[in-house]
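Good morning C.,

I know you're traveling, so I'll keep this short. The sequence:
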Amino acid sequence: MGYKKCAKLLLEQDNILILTHKNPDGDCMGSAAALCSALRRQGKTAYLYPNTQVNSKLLPFVQEYFAPQGFEAEYTVAVDVAAERMFALGFEGKVNMYIDHHPGLEREAELLLVHPELAACAQVVMKVIKAMGISLESNEAELLYIALSTDCGCFRYANTDAAALDAAAE
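The tokens, ready to paste straight into the viewer:
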């Protein structure tokens, strides 16, 4: 699936739950929260699954996006979750769509948007947001920068390439 199709399908949904993985890192949480914010700006009801393993450094950036108790999702999107065994603790249910950058991992879903050539899931999410026809808000840019810098080791890892630096600059 391409970015435009992904954006179109997301915008056709409502009551969206965004799932993250066990022991989530900055790429997982930042990417998920930025997507959640963009969907809300498009008039969608969207929340993050309240992952209890988010560390105290990331929590202030993402907590406002957590689903309230009793929220019932109609559509679930997993962001930066490579396999079902990595679902956040306590999550049970079906995932409709995966957005990721990890190649060839185990997934069962209706739809996949996977770009293994990208250094971080943040880059995938950034392109999905743009495909919605909107620009990034400052909070989304901050969340995506956290995500990108985490997966690139503060831009010291070997996956730091021109595309990663361009995304960070944006």
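Safe travels,
E.
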